[in-house]
C-alpha cells in the first residue's frame, strides 16, 4: 500500500513537473502561499501580543477603579457605623438597657433611624454583650420590624472573635461560601456581607456591644457591573485574608486558591499571572486596594483575548485564499502567455527535426521569445537553403551522370569503331574524313573523361576540335575568332561550359541564317572576376524570348527537358561552384548576341 502511494505521488510529481506552465504555477503559488502565510502568522502573533497588552492595561485600570469604589463603599459603611455625636448616649443606653425603659426606646429609635437612612441594609443587629441579648431590625414584607431576643454562643462566632481582636474594632463576614452563617436566629441568611463594629466604653475600653450591618448584594453588584464580563471570564472579590465576598464560580475559586501564585498577590503593583486550569489557559489580572488590601481578581481565558486576533487571522486566511485564487488565475494566464509561444516553437522544432524543413513559426510580439522564434526561422530558412543547394547539386550531378551515361554507351566500342574508320579513310586517301573522325573520337573521349572541372587550355583544345567538326558542316558560313588572355590558360572552369555557349550560338545564329556568322570567344580579367564571353553577329534574340530565358535562371533548378536547358544548367553549375557572385549573363539585340560567364578570382576555392 505504501509503495502504491509512493509511486502515485512520484507519478503526480513527474506529471506536474513535466510541463513548464505547471512548474511556473507551482513556483508562483508556493511564493504566494509563503508570503501570505508568513504575513498572516506574523500579524497574528503581533495581534496576540497587542491583545494581551491591551487586555492587561484595560482590565487592570478597570479593576483599580472598581476596587476603589468598593473600598470607598465599605469605608462609608464603617463611617456610618460610628455614632460620632451620640457615642456616649449609645454606650450609656447599652449599659442601662436592662433597667431603664427609656434606654430601650433610645436603642430602638437609634436602630430605626439607621435602618431608614440607607437602602442597602438587609438588617441591623445590636448585640449586648453583658446581657447576651440582641436587638434586630428587618423588613418583613412591607413592615419594618424590631425584635429583641436572647442567644448564647455569639462570643464563639469567628466574626465576633475577629472583631474583638481587630485594632479597628471591626470584622467583615462573608456569606458567599455555602456553609456561611450569621450566628443569629434569622428568618433568612444574608447573601452578601456582614459588617460588625465593636462598641467599647470610652472610659474603660471594655466592649459593651456589637453593632452588625447585613448588607444587600445590590450595591456591590451595581458597582461591579462596571467591570466588562464576557462568557468564559470569572470575577472574585476577596478580603485581605483571601476570603471570598463575591465569586461567580466556586470551583474556579477553589482551583485558584490552591495555586502557588495565589498566596503572593498581596503586592499592589503585581504583574498579571498565566494560570492553567484543566484544559484552559487564563490570564489572571488582579488589583489590590491601597487602603485596606481588598482584592479584585479576574481570570480571562486566552481564547477570549485571542478572539479578535483569531478572527483577524481567519479573515486574513480568507483574503489570502481569495488573493491566492486570483493570483493562480493570473499566474496561469501569464504562464500560458509565456509557454504557448514556447510550445508552438517546440512543435515547429519537432516538425523540423522530423524532416519538415519549411517549419517556420509565427513571430508574435517583440520579447525574447519572439527574438528566439525569429532566429529559429532564420535557421530554418538557411538550413532549407543549404538543403536545396545540396539537392540541386545532387540533381546536377545526377543530370551530368545521365548525360555521361548517354554518351558512354559502350564508349570503347565507339572509340575503337571511330579509330577503325579513320584508319580505313587514311588507306583510301580521304585525309579530311580521317581528320574529322579523329576529332570526333577525341571529342567523345573528352566528354566522357569523368572530370567536372578542367583547365581552360583543355576546354579550348576541345572547342577547336568541336569547331572543326562544325566547320566541315557549315563551311565558310562559320567564322571563328579566338581572343584568350594567356594568363587565363590555367583558369579552372566547368567542363563543356564554353562548348555550351558556342553550341548555343551555332544553334540560334548559324543555323538560322544563310549568311556567314562570326563567333568570337574571348577571355579577360577584371579586379574581381575572370570574364569569358562568346559573341555572335547573328539575328539576335527577341526581348520577350530573352526575358523568358533569364526568368528560368531565377527559379529553383529542377531536372527538365526543353530549350535552353543547357544554359540553365550552366548557370546553376556556376552558382553552385563559385557562389552568387558568379553566373551567366546574356545580352542580345538586332546586331547579335553575347553570353558572358563571370567567375570570381580564386576559382573553385569557393566551393
TrEMBL record:
HAMP domain: residues covered: 336-388
Chief site of localization: membrane
Superkingdom assignment: Bacteria
Domain Histidine kinase: 498-603
Entry keyword set: ATP-binding, Cell membrane, Kinase, Membrane, Nucleotide-binding, Phosphoprotein, Transferase, Transmembrane, Transmembrane helix, Two-component regulatory system
Transmembrane segments: 24-47, 315-339
CDD domains assigned: HAMP
GO cellular component: plasma membrane
Subcellular location: Cell membrane
Reactions catalysed according to its record: ATP + protein L-histidine = ADP + protein N-phospho-L-histidine
EC number(s) per entry: 2.7.13.3
InterPro entries for this protein: Bact_2-comp_sensor_kinase, HAMP_dom, HATPase_C_sf, HATPase_dom, His_kinase_dom, Sig_transdc_His_kin_internal
Keyword Nucleotide-binding listed: yes
Record bears the keyword Membrane: yes
Mode of membrane association: Multi-pass membrane protein
SMART domains: HAMP, HATPase_c
Listed PANTHER family: SENSOR HISTIDINE KINASE YPDA
Name by which UniProt lists this protein: histidine kinase
Record organism: Paenibacillus lentus
